[in-house]
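Posting this for the archive.
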Amino acid sequence: MQQAVVTEQIVPEAWTLYFPDEEHSPDDRRAVLVQDLLPRFTSLTRWLADRLQPQQVTGRHRLSIGYEELQNVCSSFEFSAALDLQPVEALACLGAAAHQVLFSPQAQQLFPEGIEPLKIVVRLEGHPSSMRHIRQLKSSSIGKIVSVKGTIVRISAVKPLIQCMTFTCTRCGGEHQVRFPEGIYTPPTGCNLDGCRSKSFKPQKKSAQSLDWQKIRIQELSQADKEEAGRVPRTLEVELTRDLVDSCSAGDVVTVLGIIKVLSTDAEAGGKGSKGTAGKRSLFLLYLDAVSVVNQRGANQSCKDTTDQISQPVDHLPSHQATSFTLRDLHFIVKFSQEYKGQQLKQLVHALCPAIYGHELVKAGVVLALFGGVPKGNDDLASVPVRGDIHCLIVGDPGIGKSQLLKAASAAAPRGLYVCGPSSSSAGLTATVVRDPLSGAFALEAGALVLADRGVCCVDEFDKITAEHQALLGPLEQQEVCVAKAGLVASLPARTSLLAAANPAGGQYNRAKTLLQNLKMSAAMLSRFDIIFVLLDQPDQRRDERLSEHVMAMHSGQGDRVRRAHQGSLQTRPAVSLAALDSTAQQPSLEDSLKMYSDEAHDPLPTQLLQKYIAYARQYCHPVLSDDAKQVLKEYYCKLRQESLTLEGTPVTARQLESLIRMAEARARLELVQIVTAQHAQVGTCVLVLQAYLRPFNMLAKAIMMAGSPF
């Protein structure tokens, strides 16, 4: 009986903070839910205190709790039901119960430095049952708690949102305090003090109570739902408040948990011929009031920081560092790295776009670009940042499969984006400033390079957008998009690898001209690419027969015929025996080493597994150069410098040396090792054909022939 009296004395104190406009009653459903959570939280005081983030300046304390973790430590059916039916009240009751437990006299010893009993804002994270696609949000979702995942395409500036303000009557001087629950400015309609019926009020601006407010727009992921291919991507407005503002930037992939609300607006439905209210309807715009925001960028950075010092095998990685991979995914990665040790590049080359016959060297360059190098200097303010992403350009005659390779690369990348050059603008590729139609404020809208941050951006028909090349020079090298428009000056991250495909200016590649003359592209733009491939469509009877059989088999739709055509192409390729290799000192070139022969069992790796392997390598493997690798790269770079002096074209600069380093790191990352050896450096130099644009085509063919190097 005495415990009940103590409870009656404590609950109203927390009740006034979380339900200021409601009168407390022991039979109220909210009071009952608080009483249900109190005994559960009392035994978890230490658990709650560890997750409390005191924020004295903002006037609110933050409590970050995972839903699944909460259900494991204190499962409450009443709270789960209330969260589905009335999420606003359920979160308020959760905060009231935590407030009463954490600020009780028994819990003060957990805060040695002391803490002010301010209101607790609960940030609930990880609610799997509420995960929805943006296209699934309809009128039935209003008032429900949902989780959506998407890419931020627009972000506004942080502004103060008024919650409460005092108004003074101009006739009697009476004061009226008005609350704005949804942030909508609604002054009092009339004064009812001492019989005063005045309708004129003066706001007291100094009495206004505001909070930080920011609006973002998220767009559904392009690879989230293949059934929606061909439709306009759905977007959703999200409102961030208090500590959630500035927690993400344009281009980030976020998972937002929030409550669906509506914003009323009037829109004409009858077009220009409508007059008055006959042609108008009351429409509602759905938006998401965010409860928590989980930024994938922060998760990747924390994983990188914890694995920088790891130099142990894959199967000995701690389990907590592979949270985004299932046990089956880890088992596949370990088995693949052990079964094809030293031959991973060959297997991945044949797994990328099997429908395209041949072009092993081009596929190898694309695979290295998918893995990328290791960025440096991003965390040190005193050093100059050096990008780790590899840019690749494929130039060739029409009809050789350049577009298919780009689409396959965007599908295999953990985060890939495919755009076509003629239908893109400089603002669509980088970023722009747009005006919000509702608020009238300016906001940043991300382009393709920003949306593909930490991924791959594939641009087809790159030669058709020469006017936009100037806008791409900075983002390709500095890895960020700088915007200065309409009074907004900002830098958006664009840490992406650019894979571009271009056709020669005359339709067919002219061997008598250099690559610059064939593309009519500036030397500054061409120097941004680490790898440049020139593909020519030359008649070859044997190759044409194998290619025609391969194409006919693919179009027939018969699996047996496809396998027979593939096996036939393997049998007709010249194979070199191991005894012949042992008897001579000459080693096979990289292109010959990447070919698949008839005596080798080959089953192409599915795209889903290829994507998992790339994601794991980029997240956990950050190799460093060894002394032997540095010597190999140094000698090859000096050789390129000497050759550039005797040939026509732009001299080789230190930018090409950085490209060599990036490809050597990508080769080591592909094998999931932490040290770049001389063997990895030699393979990296094989793929480098940066000097392609420095000389005529006959010298280019000689350079490609001399690029062979043993593994």
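The longest helix spans residues 627-646. The mean pLDDT is 75.
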